[in-house]
Amino acid sequence: MGLISDVEIGAVSLDRFVPVLGPERVATTLGIAASVREKLHGGAVWNVNSTAVGGGVAEMLPPLLAYARGMQIDARWVVIHGEHDFFVLTKRVHHALHGSVGEGGPPHEVDRALYEATCTANASELALRLGPGDVVILHDPQTAGMAPHLIDRGARVIWRCHIGADVRTPEVDQGWAFLRPYLERVPVLVFSRREYVPRDLDGPRVRIIQPSIDAFSPKNEDMDVDVVRAILAHVGVLSGPCPDRASPVYTRRDGSPARVERVADIVRAGPAPDVDVPLVVQVSRWDPLKDMHGVMCGFAKLIASGRAGDSALVLAGPNVHAVADDPEGPRVYHDVLDGWYKLPPSARARITLAMLPTADVDENAAIVNALQRHGEIVVQKSLHEGFGLTVTEAMWKSRTVIATRTGGIQDQIVQGESGIMIDDALDLDAFANALAGLVSDPDRRRRMGAAARARATEHFLGIRHLLDYAAVIDEMLSATAAPARTVDQSAGAIA
């Protein structure tokens, strides 16, 4: 069994964007795609990351690559393999780049042997599959160590970093010191925010590309309200039975109809909330930086103050054993669960912990879609955030969002207009006060939700993301001729 795993990608036409954004933006994108195709001379664009399930990168790649393939660009996606210790290490790098100590602390020189061995093995296997003129986009710290080997084999490499910190700390510096040797010869470095770029890496090779969502994916497609309720009743988040006039159905990424079959692993005290109970929802990984425990404690404060009305809280994340590159998930979930048991009965009765099934990626996305659409208030109280696609998703669904003023969340929410940002994620009183102001004011929630939808439509849909990537690749191909390489037919390697 090889180290590199292929992720299957279909092809989707950009025509679906015409009713949302108009024909002119679609035509502009198609024109740039034609230029990229011509300059690739039959080459492929490879995307390489560390997991096909869970996290923002795995959310963004399927639709973006499907649209690229719909424009006749040979876009591919492969996932690297590593042992448990490798992903423990890369999670430490992840925390360091966010400015957090994390479990185990920032990476050290002694960690390079493990990191380089895994990256070299994966790069060597991928290199056997590359053709002349191929472009390779490496995503995040897990893949940065592959860059020197692929460049030596003649690939044109882009490194795409989806995370970062607004403020330099010793942890941030240590994280970048660990990665820097692998990035020295990479011709293009892509970041989500200018603030994330280390000073000594800044310069003409840096590009800024904000992430996006796919408006037509199972996670973001329009859903009838009865279908939303049917899905949530089926998985166990809301009280049932499902309405007779609706089934828990959704549309897969390939356009085929499907039904939610699996259920969530639920922890609650007492019956599930009724469909009319206003839900406060946070959906994220069980990651310490997402601060699920803090959301729970802040909501408990709201209840204790008597300002929660009849609202309830749902904290939802993936099955903790399902995300290969997130070894902290089980511990974080059990920390939240332990905290839940310590709450007073009045709070436990109104707080649900839900581990969502992930065996079927589209099914999981449909469940998240239903949760975000049913939630009156969607929360993202992250301690640090690279961009915060769950905020974008909620905004697209016209939900009112309360989030921390951190990372790319600041680029999405216009304070008081399209959502509310709290300045300090650890200030539970400020969080509870923000909740109280929205729980008691449905008209304000509706106004903010409408403004959020308009902002997401204008700035954070996939077609803008495609334009940005296409422009970077087009510029890169224009600046460098296809490498003069031959293929060793006996070994399949680029010579």
TrEMBL record:
This is Trehalose synthase. Belongs to the glycosyltransferase group 1 family. Glycosyltransferase 4 subfamily. Keywords: Carbohydrate metabolism, Glucose metabolism, Glycosyltransferase, Transferase. PANTHER family: SYNTHASE (CCG-9), PUTATIVE (AFU_ORTHOLOGUE AFUA_3G12100)-RELATED. Residues 371-454 form the Glycosyl transferase family domain. Pfam families: Glycos_transf_1, TreT_GT1. Homodimer. The keyword Transferase applies. Residues 47-198 form the Trehalose synthase N-terminal domain. GO terms for molecular function: glycosyltransferase activity. Gene3D superfamilies: Glycogen Phosphorylase B. GO terms for biological process: glucose metabolic process.
